[in-house]
Amino acid sequence: MTAAVFIGCSFIAFGPALALCVCTIAAEPLRLLFLIAGGFFWLVSLLLSSLVWFIAVQIGGSNNASVKKNLLIFGVMVSVLLQEVFRFAYYKLLKKANKGLMTISQEETLPISVRQLSYVSGLGFGIMSGVFSLVNILTDSWGPGTVGIYGDSPQYFLSSAFMTLAIVLLHIFWGIVFFDACEKKKWWALALVILSHLLVSGVTFQNPQYEGSLVPSYIIMMLMATWAFFTAGGSLRNLKLCLMCRDKDFLLANQRPR
User: Fold this and answer.
1) Is 257 a residue whose pLDDT tops 90?
2) What pTM, to 2 d.p., does this model score?
3) Which of these, 116, 103, 251, lies nearest to 183 by C-alpha position?
């Protein structure tokens, strides 16, 4: 049963992201490079978050439960803000890198568009975030022990997998909206991305009442998915044609660098 839990939760959490990676990135070395770099930037943000958390715990260390909870909330907020700061830093770096590639390229168009960069970087952030969110939980799924034996929810692993899936996909949508907002200087959109990230991270404090965290997270994910779809140039007409398999060149057309 433990193997089934491990494989099932892994498939739920990372299946869509790996499918996207294989279908849209793996065959393009440049995209793969930017994907790995995005994951590295997320790791650096995690390192700095851990450092801030360690210092805060040393300064405000206490056995008081309320103090520990406040420190945890502070740590989550710092982590989210640092992730978005490093997303912006990665955007600036990619813009400079793209200009350099344009200089040495023999083509008149950019080797990779800003929209492609936003998608690839978001997927890199999401995969790395998901790995660090779920890897320890998946390890614990091998036992020993039985989840829920003391009255806790027996759906701990399943709920964690669905939450990780939401976070991975949200990072893709956040990346698309974030990069577009930077390009067009829509600071209100940047603020909404950061606020939605803080909100999704904040609702996890409702656990182990998982419906209190999963339902709001998936509502936000659907809203961000819709926003990202139209931001990336999608339309209801294109979506209808794509779903009816009457516009097979739609995805290819949207991959042209701009």
Assistant:
1) no
2) 0.86
3) 116
